[in-house]
Amino acid sequence: MTISLTTVELGIGPLSTEDVVAVARHGARVELNQAALEAIAHSRAVIADLAEDVEPHYGISTGFGALATTFIPLPARAQLQAGLIRSHAAGAGPAVETEVVRALMLQRLSTMATGRTGVRPITAQSYAALLNAQITPVVHEYGSLGCSGDLAPLAHCALALLGEGPVTDASGALTTAAEALAAAGIEPLQLVEKEGLALINGTDGMLGMLVLALHDLTELVTVADLAAAMSVEALMGTDAVFAADLARLRPHPGQQQSAANLRILLENSPIIDSHQGPACTRVQDAYSLRCAPQVHGAVRDTLEHARLVALRELTAAIDNPVVTHDGRVESNGNFHGAPVAYALDFLAIAVADLASISERRTDRHLDAKRSDGLPPFLAETPGVDSGLMIAQYTAAGLMAELKRLAAPASVDSIPSSAMQEDHVSMGWHAARKLRRAVDGLRDVLAIELMTAARSLDLRAPLQPAAGTAAVRDFLRTGVAGPGPDRFLAPEIGWVSAAVRSGAVLEAARNAVPGLD
């Protein structure tokens, strides 16, 4: 999927998933349009009026969480907002990835642009300036419970607006926020009523990671179709089970799409043609080959469900309290991350199963009893050489980790804030484990691709179909074909990197343009 590096305009409309990937991963700039600035100014005027009110208003003239009943006098309210940010910037553990931080910052800025948070225009503009200057606050692995917003991660980002805390600059060098802001010509902010809360109260981190995972998995499920096609071919399977009329008997959209990909990839395969007809004694293939469209298709349908959740969330204005169209300032529970957390956990299950069927196909290539004439472990001289034996061990080890990561985080609520926040989503944790799962899936698929390519070579002089041959030939530009044992880790890494970059799919699509 190609992402344009054009400027992303923020208004009162929703972000697209492509916008998020462009800013988070590819450094696209952001710009607040006039409609957004007017909406922000309007909501700020509502908050400014309430700031003078003698009646307490949550987030404006009260404490937070379990301290919401504590009235804060006017002279202490600036201290209240800054103190909120400093106290909530309480993360621990390693720093998360730059793209995750940029994604969550973009979405917090998008919520500000809706005119529902009560921040000043200068606050939103300064936040945009951080993104455009490629200043990335250091956000830690732990600190969010996925409720009342991704509090600690967003607080670390807000802290940088105050000119405090560590950040990385455009070159990736670690520095202080004060130095980075000065170098970029950005004035540190002094927060006013409601702004501290508005900067930290959203599901932005977990949503950002969901959007990035959707982008990656949309590509990986097609890579899985490609790997399956190579395995079906190399293991002397049949493509008859992928027929369109058979797929239509069970009308799941994802299944039909994966079956279509397999048909396209295996069309006119000399290897498959070599064993069709009355002389073929195989009645049907193993499930890992025959049921690939059913499993891959279920993953596609799960992705569509998660994409719908993400798109709905991208239209949301999440804050507490929130400024309504008619000027009310109302407390609410929209910051609860359950909808996003469930989708993240659902995807982790789908990722684990997609990797599982891939690993089973890899194992079939290596077992001489099931590979239809291929040498044990695809070794040059079995016994002297181990071939790809331990590559399958690596895939199996990754599968063990992926099964662990498939355990849902969203069922593990831990109460906080003196039982005021007594049910939380753990969506941030669901997102963090999904990111690790996506990386594991990519490596499992890389091992299947590498294995299937070697099997295809060993079927010579029979030749594969156009699409699978193109991928096999591309892999040969970085990974040698069959031969004596050699150092495998760099080869697995090269194929995985080629999957990540999109080069593997590009090779296939150049040969068979209809692949989706």
Explain what you see.
With 516 residues, the protein is mainly alpha-helical. It folds into two domains: 8-202, Orthogonal Bundle (Fumarase C, Chain B, domain 1), CATH 1.10.275.10; 209-511, Fumarase/aspartase (Central domain) (Fumarase C, Chain A, domain 2), CATH 1.20.200.10. It is 55% helix and 5% strand. It has helices at 17-26, 34-51, 77-88, 98-113, 121-132, 151-161, 177-184, 195-198, 204-234, 244-248, 253-266, 270-273, 287-290, 292-314, 338-366, 389-405, 427-458, 466-475, 489-501, 503-511; strands spanning 8-10, 30-32, 92-95, 136-137, 140-142, 166-168, 174-176, 322-323, 329-330. A three-stranded antiparallel beta sheet has the order 4-6-7. The N and C termini lie close together (11 Å). The model has no long low-confidence stretch (mean pLDDT 93).
Question: Brief overview, please?
Answer:
By secondary structure, this protein is mainly alpha-helical.
